[in-house]
Amino acid sequence: MSLVNTVLFRKLSSSARIFHHLKKNFFSVTACNEQKNDEHVMHVFDRNTKSLQRERAASAQDANVYDYLKDEIGYRLADRVFDIKRKFKLAADIGCSRGHVSKHISPKCVEELILCDMNRFNLDSFQVQKGIKVKKHILDEENIEFEPNSLDLVISSLSLHWVNDLPRAFKQILDSLKQDGVLLAAVFGGDTLYELRSSLQLAELERRGGLSPHISPFTEVRDIGNLLTRAGFTMLTIDTDEIVVTYPSLFELMWDLKGMAESNAALNRSLHLHRETQFAAAAIYQQLYGKADPETGKVSIPATFQIINMLGWKPHPKQPKPMERGTGEVSLKDLYRLDEIIKDVKKLKDDDDQKN
Predict the structure, then answer these.
(1) Residue 274 sits in a domain of what CATH number?
(2) What is the tens place of the pLDDT at every residue in 59-74?
(3) For residue 336, what are the CA distances in angstroms to 31, 135, 327, 328?
(4) Distance between terminal CA atoms of the chain?
(5) 193 and 250 in contact (C-beta within 8 Å)?
């Protein structure tokens, strides 16, 4: 590795630590918001700007060109609804956008669906499957208002990561659910667009002598678990997916992010990115992460999108509960013998059945 590259990587490591520290502080503040007054909420995102951004993206003539990522994630989330062997009488899709989840929801799963979005244009631009009753409701994810104990299911795909006060949003969702109601949601995780982030940081360090976080802060899996638990959800299931999309260059990636309404225009700070910095970032991106096609020789760049999927239940007296501490019959140190233990337990049960 050359001396120049060594210096650059050292700078990247330092800037990454700075960004991680800022992100950690951001979510530490967010996680504590439930214990503070609203005046202490950190308003990272401008909700009015985000509303205009979504409306502009949805009203574009080629809006469907940029739906590929959200459609894929929406389909996967709808499939998780299908995995729950229950028909929900009343469900709400919060931040439904262009119906990336709702259009895949089967009438076998949901009887009535409330479509919620910040913009009327989104609500009028799609239909759900036949057999599902539909209501449309203008709603900002910052203020989720439903009748208490009225919903059986709440779904949300790629909208809650733009909320300033996640603890409050989760608490409002919990209050709106009936007992044993379900929250199913997907948000972008902390490793999303790490290639773009590091390339921009290196470019700014080289061209400007400093850096600014040009990518929105994303939450981590552990943060989501803590926030859901503090809100009051039980029986949590949290996992992650990674979707890697290839682009010709950094510029096509940034253009698609704008078309998806996922660009950073809603951040409450100056975001000017100098032209020379953009070209430097494109070159660094290609150098560090670019992959050449063995047949054509053309170089493309990967962009990683980490998806955090979450499932939480509102408490109900009949829900399964963990056994009391100390009542376990198998030690964790014997897990390597699990097959033998299961066979022994099954044999004992068969012997008891024969005696009876």
Answers:
(1) 3.40.50.150
(2) 888 888 999 999 999 9
(3) 38, 53, 20, 16
(4) 75
(5) no
